[in-house]
Specification:
This protein is an alpha+beta fold. It is built from 25 helices and 19 strands. Strands 3-4-1-10-9-11 form a six-stranded antiparallel β-sheet, covered by helices on one side. It has a six-stranded antiparallel β-sheet with strand order 5-6-7-8-12-13. Strands 16-15-14-17-18 form a five-stranded parallel β-sheet. It is globular, with a radius of gyration of 25 Å. The C terminus is likely disordered.
């Protein structure tokens, strides 16, 4: 893991409580373990973890003014200086418009500004501490600093309504540690904190201005090309040297066995449009994508394209053929990683502690097997679906803008999939109801559904679309929560509804942003759980500028069937890539549910052991017998929501890893100064006062 951490104290000078020079327990200086100090008192900032030298940049105007950028940023030092001057006047948005994925921190006297990203892949957390405010890009260091206990209300909301921002609010699994929402910045003035938004808010009184589809797609192309070019322009890094030969193993096998990536640039190549677009862009842009700085003949090396072939679950043969056809070019080197039962979901329940829980914890071993064959810098197509596709609730946005004719093609596609002539009327009616339903009423409806335990599961594409045409829905794991936990989340939603007023916002845009934030948070968990030493995963679709360009795509274009593949095909054509294999961009008929069900069947016994005495039951969130019954039923093939079981298993795994942890993120504190110092105290219900 890599993060930055600092604080802003009310007092000034090196004698301030909690400053970089403060003396902690046993005469040790209070500072993060394994850190490098970027600037010191009175508001110190550290970079913690295995940052590469080019990933940490600090530009100073004088002793009181500076800017630190951590991550991949395409801005030059001169652009950073201009950005610092502009930020001193209070303007923030320009700090987030450089290509790449990074976190910017600006020091202007005693004012500290930390900018989060638009997707939520690079979050910012904060907590009150020592009369001021501590902040970080990871929640666990702050939880250690204040000895935070678990926030059981947040954990209940993660299971009951994970896609509803009103349920999660700005909380984290650690009590007292808060996160800033995507598209916001944290501003600290001598310890006082303020969360401000840096994106302009569109007027909702009138219909949105129609955007030109061609210009919007061109903007997406330019943003994606610049995002890929920025990463190709960064210095190459050679992973740790190979310690020596192993009998019967070649260099590539030794690297994979020791968890070392291949030097150079690589990309996922699943056969889908997102990963294929990034691989072709990275391989086709001018330059030498695979060449290491100071290594090789100068002629360049081929980009390493990695395809995962699931031997345990079939159904992706067409995608594998397309991946092979895409990788046949002279600038790509294709590697196929075969995975059997050992790479199924739930196959390996051991792994590192991540900053927060996430459903991808049950998939970490599956992804690690693929990434171990990847490169030191590896492109992934994560986030493309969330930023390019249209959430079904966007149909209501079109009705609000009086653009009914644009509903014809998506509704006709659903009708063909279902084979019923009643589909258009049902979909139109649901979209019309959502367009006329206030946000507050949507939260109240969800609160009532949780209280009454109404968890009807949609069937088929039409059922899923109709179910998504709401402001908020229960999570797939909600059906297995205790009544007390559901009542707690229901009361929370009622309170949020009372505070929200009428909630003037568009339901489709609201649901799409929430889905993007959840996906970005889970991708962050996946990066930490499946991390390969010396490897960096790059998700250009989640870069600020790419997200902005995708948000400007007209809704009428988004909702058309096959819009994502058509947009990416146009992006590639604009970049000079036209020779695509037949069927490129076709939707996959193989579902990840088949792999999840196979994994549940194979790992049924370990999962039953995991829930013999679950920590979730001690927290009052579930009953052990109920979860064990669900695991047996799902392994036997009963139609249960498998995503919900993944949520339960992931949260249980995360709690066990957190409580088994030793040590702390800080020096100068006793051993007990870590998150959840006393463990989970069994309690009768999630509503017990003071529990």
């Amino acid at each position: 893991m890599r993060w930055l951490v600092g604080w802003s104290s009310a007092a000034a000078g090196p004698a301030a409580i909690g400053s970089a020079g403060a003396v902690g327990y046993d005469g040790e200086t209070l500072q993060p373990v394994g850190s490098q100090l970027l600037w010191g008192d009175p508001d110190p900032l550290w970079a913690v973890g295995d940052w590469r030298p080019d990933e940490v940049r600090v530009v100073r105007a004088d002793a009181q003014h500076g800017i630190a950028v951590l991550g991949i940023c395409g801005a030059s030092d001169e652009e950073l200086r201009r950005g610092l001057v502009t930020a001193r006047g209070g303007a923030l948005r320009h700090l987030t418009t450089w290509p790449g994925s990074y976190t910017a921190v600006v020091q202007a006297g005693r004012r500290i500004t930390v900018c989060g990203d638009l997707a939520g892949a690079r979050p910012v957390f904060h907590t009150p501490w020592a009369g001021g405010t501590a902040y970080a890009t990871a929640a666990l260091p702050l939880a250690d600093l204040i000895e935070a206990n678990l926030d059981f209300t947040h954990l209940a909301a993660l299971l009951a309504a994970p896609d509803v921002p009103a349920a999660l609010r700005d909380t984290t699994p650690y009590d007292g540690v808060r996160r800033i929402p995507p598209g916001h910045a944290l501003v600290l003035r001598a310890g006082a904190r303020e969360v401000v938004g840096y994106e302009p808010v569109a007027s909702l009184a009138v219909a949105a201005t129609p955007a030109d589809p061609e210009r919007a797609v061109d903007a997406v192309r330019d943003a994606l090309v610049e995002a890929v070019r920025t990463r190709l322009a960064a210095p190459r890094h050679v992973p740790d040297l190979d310690p020596g030969p192993v009998p019967g193993m070649g260099p590539a096998e030794r690297r994979a066995a020791r968890g070392m990536p291949v030097p150079g640039i690589g990309a996922d190549l699943s056969g889908g449009p997102a990963s294929g677009t990034l691989a072709l862009l990275a391989a086709g842009l001018p330059g030498r994508p695979g060449t290491l700085l100071g290594h090789g003949t100068g002629a360049g090396e081929r980009l390493l394209a990695v395809t995962f072939n699931d031997l345990a679950v079939g159904g992706r043969e067409a995608e594998l053929e397309r991946a092979g056809a895409l990788a046949a070019g002279p600038r790509l080197h294709h590697v196929v990683v075969a995975g059997g039962e050992e790479t199924l979901p739930y196959a390996d329940l051991d792994g590192p502690l991540t900053d927060e829980p996430g459903p991808s914890l049950v998939l970490a071993a599956r992804h690690r097997a693929r990434l171990a064959a990847g490169s030191a810098d590896h492109f992934t197509g994560h986030g493309a679906r969330q930023v390019l596709d249209a959430h079904p609730a966007r149909l209501a946005d079109l009705l609000m803008d009086r653009r009914r004719r644009h509903l014809v093609r998506p509704v006709a596609a659903l009708a063909r999939a279902d084979g019923s002539v009643l589909v258009p009327a049902r979909v139109y009616g649901a979209a019309r109801r959502l367009a006329r339903t206030p946000y507050r009423a949507g939260l109240e409806t969800l609160a009532e559904r949780l209280m009454r335990r109404r968890f009807d599961e949609p069937k088929g594409a039409v059922g899923a679309s109709l179910a998504a045409l709401t402001w908020a829905r229960p999570g797939p794991a909600a059906r297995w929560l205790t009544g007390e936990a559901l009542a707690e989340v229901s009361v929370l939603l009622q309170a949020e509804a009372d505070r929200s007023g009428t909630g003037a916002q568009r339901p489709g845009d609201y649901r799409a942003r929430a889905a993007l934030a959840r996906h970005a948070a889970d991708l962050r968990v996946l990066e930490q759980a499946a991390e390969i030493r010396s490897q960096r995963l790059h998700a250009p679709f989640l870069d600020n500028q790419v997200v902005r360009a995708c948000r400007d795509l007209p809704e009428a274009l988004r909702v058309q069937p096959g819009a994502r593949a058509a947009t990416l095909r146009t992006v590639l054509e604009g970049a000079g890539v036209t020779d695509l294999p037949p069927g490129w961009g076709a939707p996959s008929h193989a579902s990840s549910a088949a792999a999840a069900r196979a994994g549940l069947r194979v790992a049924a016994d370990p999962l039953l052991d995991l829930f013999s005495t679950p920590l979730l039951a001690d927290a009052g969130l579930v009953e052990a017998r109920v979860v064990r019954k669900a695991v047996r039923a799902a392994a036997a093939g009963e139609p249960l929501p498998l995503d919900g079981l993944a949520d339960l298993v992931s949260l249980e795994l995360w709690l066990r890893r957190l409580l088994a942890r030793r040590g702390t993120c800080w020096t100068g504190t006793p051993t007990r100064s870590r998150a959840v110092p006393s463990g989970i105290q069994p309690r009768r219900s999630a509503l017990t006062p003071g529990a």
